[in-house]
Amino acid sequence: MAWSADAVIKPQVKDFDMSAYKLAWSDEFDGAKLDLDKWDYRTDSKMHSTQKPENVSIADGKLILHLKKEEAGKMHYTGAGVISKRTFKYGYYEARLKTPPGSGWHTSFWLQKHDGSGTTAIKQAFQELDVIENDSTGPDSYDVAVHRWKTPYKSFAGKKVWTPNHEKLSDDFHTFGCEFTPLTIKYFFDGNLVQTVNVSVIEHNDQNIWLTSIAMRTGGNKGVDDSKLPATAEFEYVRFFEPAGN
């Protein structure tokens, strides 16, 4: 969906003061290929997969991350991810996505400063905000969290969020949101507030947007379910709304 400075695109949040924010940046994934003016590729070999640019495509108005069983970078699986070139800070972040079926994939929409290396180096990061981390062991749940990377490291405010009617996150698209202010972080699922975190006690810096899916044995899963491969993680859009007074 194309947009302009006066586009009528608002945060998909209930009981939310939409007048406090205006759309500042988005990708509606409506082109023929990934917009490399907006994105870098994730290219690391981490956990159980190597992330390949070739596994990223745009189709039917969606960002598609292809997940495969294949040899690459001494790994037996390949995943994919994109990282915004632009950095952001305070405002409201939102993405609509569907996770892959089958166990063994860590699919995320998260925010952290990127150093340009294509991997999760954290030397420049003050904070990491996890809007959704789904480890595919619980198809009807995901995690939100805050990590302080500036010494000393601390992970806090983690919470497991369950879908209201135990819908599988791989069956349909859902909307995940994060409001980041100097005082608090609020996480939203399909417009509903699911977690509020006091972040006034930690330092903040600019951050990039990450959309990724990698093979990972976490959360009790026993590894990748090969019978579900090849698979995809899919994103309909990602948006950033800045304070209206900016």
Q: Which CATH class is shown?
A: Mainly Beta
Radius of gyration, CA atoms, in whole angstroms: 17 Å
Largest beta-sheet details: 17 strands, mixed
Beta strand count: 17
- What is the number of domains? 1
CATH topology: Jelly Rolls
Structural notes for this entry:
This protein has strands at residues 21-27, 39-41, 45-46, 49-51, 56-59, 62-72, 75-84, 91-98, 105-112, 127-134, 141-148, 154-162, 174-180, 184-189, 192-198, 208-215, 231-243. The protein is mainly beta and 246 residues long. It has a single domain (19-218, 235-243), classed as Jelly Rolls (Sandwich), CATH 2.60.120.200. A hairpin with a 6-residue loop joins strand 10 (127-134) and strand 11. The two termini are 24 Å apart.
Describe, in short, the structure shown:
This protein is mostly beta strands and 246 residues long. 0% of the residues lie in helices and 50% in strands. Strand 13 (174-180) and strand 14 (184-189) form a beta hairpin.
Features:
disordered N terminus; mainly beta; 17-stranded mixed sheet; 50% strand; 246 residues; Jelly Rolls
Give the helices and strands, then pairings:
Layout: E1 21-27, E2 39-41, E3 45-46, E4 49-51, E5 56-59, E6 62-72, E7 75-84, E8 91-98, E9 105-112, E10 127-134, E11 141-148, E12 154-162, E13 174-180, E14 184-189, E15 192-198, E16 208-215, E17 231-243
Parallel strand pairs: 4-7
Antiparallel strand pairs: 1-17, 2-7, 3-4, 5-6, 6-7, 6-17, 7-16, 8-13, 8-17, 9-10, 9-16, 10-11, 11-12, 13-14, 14-15
